[in-house]
């Protein structure tokens, strides 16, 4: 149950930047654990491929800029193509992935149906906040930057 008593406003320009490797980064927005959902904006360069992962809750991806392909484990040969304004709901506990398509960056709004980000990667570990641990170390969190 949410303890939210007043509107919560988070501005992208003020959000912390979390690196997801050399081709992507994430800005958590409504992400304090005191609402029933968690949101953030991910920006991914051409060539980005999300590692196969899953969440113990439904995740929605809403494409803001660019194009993406998304698929569930086992359906890699049947990706769904998403463009600006398209949204996909990914089932809980089912490994999935997505990639940037084309030569333009892709930006998406991720909506986690959970107050906290919980991610299980199939090929790497995540830290206590659900962010990927890359090359055996936590990725640095930079200053408030925006692509």
TrEMBL record:
GO molecular function, one term: metal ion binding
Keywords: Metal-binding
Keyword Coiled coil: no
Domain of life: Bacteria
InterPro entries xrefs: Cupin_2 (IPR013096), GPI/OXD (IPR051610), RmlC-like_jellyroll (IPR014710), RmlC_Cupin_sf (IPR011051)
Domain Cupin type-2: 41-111
Protein name in the entry: Cupin type-2 domain-containing protein
Taxonomic placement: Bacteria, Pseudomonadati, Pseudomonadota, Alphaproteobacteria, Hyphomicrobiales
